[in-house]
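Justification of computing resources. Each target in the renewal requires a structure prediction run like the one illustrated here; the chain below, 299 residues long, is used simply to show the kind of job we budget for.
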Amino acid sequence: MVVKPEWLRVKAPQWERVGKVKDVLRDLGLNTVCEEASCPNIGECFNAGTATFLIMGPACTRACPYCDIDFEKKPKPLDPTEPERLAEAVRRMRLNHVVVTSVNRDDLPDGGAAQFDRCIRAIRSASPGTTIEVLIPDLCANWDALKIIVQANPEVLNHNTETVPRLYRRVRPQGDYGRSLDLLQRTRQLAPWMYTKSGIMVGLGETDQEVRQVMQDLRSVDCDILTIGQYLQPSQKHLAVQNFITPEQFDAWQHYGESLGFLQVVSSPLTRSSYHAEQVRALMERYPREVGIMSYKFS
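Resulting structure tokens:
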């Protein structure tokens, strides 16, 4: 058994603030990945009044052995009221930046793209000053579905590569590394102004060189933002942690990523896909891009 090191301990949250966020979520019947995936940063994020909303769930059609989200072959039909309830939560919480993610919905022809579109548009209407980040699944390589999401024009499109190619069969058996890179590249082709983002977990047996190769691959498809965080085993039934990565190694990856040209690299033991995601507003001010006309053809 690998013993959890001191640097992975988190401060106890201020439950009064956490309770207020939870009250909004319960009142509107919404799910968050913070809760469903047992994120270690839930206290910090809820204390700050932020959350990563999980739509079309909480059950997922894939059973990735690292993830704590429930698996269901036949999840419930989509709720047509979800986009408006989500938008109301964003308005009540007065969010400057919101992250919207989803479970995999391989049962739907478009993988849930239309629901992402409806959620983005509802948020725009209710809270026009809020910047929007979507963390999307691979859509089973349905690139017409990807166009639907990109056309809704979120400021940031995130899709996680999750791990190194060698470990995909064990960690992400229903995923495909090349497909994930292809999704990010096609997003860039469709909307060159959109900020693209990806993230990986470490501590599953990958090597330093393999992590650096993933970083190079992401830059080869012009990915802008990268997150790297320590994998933590949610329960005994999930994949075991192979090793705990030191803060010094996370720092080294951050410096390497910056040298490759990423606009932002967030790399630390407790980093998760949407950890400190609101910092993207400052990044957009530093590296502004003019919105153009979306391309409908892939080169």
